[in-house]
Sequence to fold (610 residues):
Amino acid sequence: MSTQEATPIRKLAIIGCGLMGGSLALALKRAEHVHEVVGFSRSPATREQALALGVIDTAAPGLAQAVHGADMVVLATPVGALAPTMAAMTPYLSRDAVITDVGSTKSDVVAHAQTHLRDHIKRFVPSHPIAGKEHAGVAHADADLYENRKVIVTPLPNNALGAIASVQSMWGICGAEVVRMTPHEHDTVFAAVSHLPHLLAFAYINGLADQSRLEQFLALAGPGFRDFTRIAGAHPEMWRDVYLSNREAIRDQLDHFKSALARFEQALDTHDAHALMAFVERSRDIRAPWQLNAAIPRRDDLTQQ
Amino acid sequence: MSTQEATPIRKLAIIGCGLMGGSLALALKRAEHVHEVVGFSRSPATREQALALGVIDTAAPGLAQAVHGADMVVLATPVGALAPTMAAMTPYLSRDAVITDVGSTKSDVVAHAQTHLRDHIKRFVPSHPIAGKEHAGVAHADADLYENRKVIVTPLPNNALGAIASVQSMWGICGAEVVRMTPHEHDTVFAAVSHLPHLLAFAYINGLADQSRLEQFLALAGPGFRDFTRIAGAHPEMWRDVYLSNREAIRDQLDHFKSALARFEQALDTHDAHALMAFVERSRDIRAPWQLNAAIPRRDDLTQQ
Fold:
């Protein structure tokens, strides 16, 4: 991908000035890949904060003003707010505006786009950056957030090729590696590697909280607990939306988990030392050598495009 | 606890020269709290490695030679090896030897001690340091491993007071904070904060491994997966022993987890956005403000001594 020669963005509209949208704006500004960044958030305080931090150049008073004349529109609201946002902004989009999002689910976002974006769907190229921080909010926005991270891009069958290229270039310029797949494939994979682990961490903390000794548990928990539960502190609104919008794939992953757990319980109940050892060994053999951002498989393994 | 004035250890016997025992030896040497460290491991190669790294001063050819004349004996083998180790070393213990261990479970270790340590049980003061590293083995031994970590000490009703003081002082000198509780209370708490999370991480990886897309999952997993599954790379033999020896408490914690998970599934199946949000919020409200090694509750909440 020749990100070097990509045409800079003239006017970037960030809809939802939080960690994700703010970090994208900062990275593109640093790379001098954008002339003007206009931001809109429903909360005036957030807009003012983004402006004061230099994340955006102009705070738009409404969606119409934010997207007016923008050649790149990035939807960075929680997934649950995407449909009404799309509906409200569509009448004001420039004819050539390229649109993307940063949502953690893709099939539902595509369905919303089909309902609300009208003819602009040709230039709507969904994205999901695999990046984040423990703390959300524009105050934590960071030009390095996407550096060496993967960004999944799920082009639609009727997408204009130029729109796909613009979105891919934009992420490449932020230091990310773009991986293409279909929206359905994306949702299957992330139910497995992200939505289920979050769910297990949430359920684990809820199970502790059902017990009267919770305080004592928290006082004595160690580094293993710290890492295992880091994702249990995540954003409730975002995760509610993820679970509502990717139910079937999550159900499927939950079935795989429960089936593995049942095998463990069977071994525990029968004092089967050999089976318990094999269970932990299988986990160790897969996880111990694993590394974040190791080389990904050949492209033809990853995409059905 | 006046760790400052504690009498140094004359001869420390480390039985099992791995990460835990090796790190203890290095910390006590650095603090000049020990005159001589003798190490024994079943594997001659491990003994020689510990000697070459300066973790131990002498490699004993057998258990008898290791404990002979030692005033402090630390059992740092996997929990499953403790019973035969105790049986084999007991005839050679000095009359005044203080004994401790570093096992992740305590009720079973106490039962083994009652069977095998004979009269020496008066000076056996069980310990469990809440510390570790991603990689085991003496090559990773580190004098700072116990710095600012908690060490649970579970004295027995008939323990000599001087033995309890010696063990507590030893951990204090390594920089750890000693927390006292009963063996049963220990096993209940650690089933909740350690054994269950490890089990969930092992089962999660096993559930992924049951699927043909495992390679793709691993290629696209991000930082949340990395942290959530770090403990899934743990030592199989150690964890097999933990599960076999703390079955009842783990079963009980698993019931709490499954009950919380069932509530989530109910909310998912009924598209109950409010319940899903409340589930994640409860987790977030507990986990987000949590910090490792925050102040622990009042002592009378923690111990029944």
User: Anything to note?
Assistant: Chain B touches chain A through 94 residues (CB under 8 Å). Chain B has a mean pLDDT of 93. The beta strands of chain B are 9-15, 34-40, 58-59, 72-75, 98-101, 127-129, 150-153, 177-180.
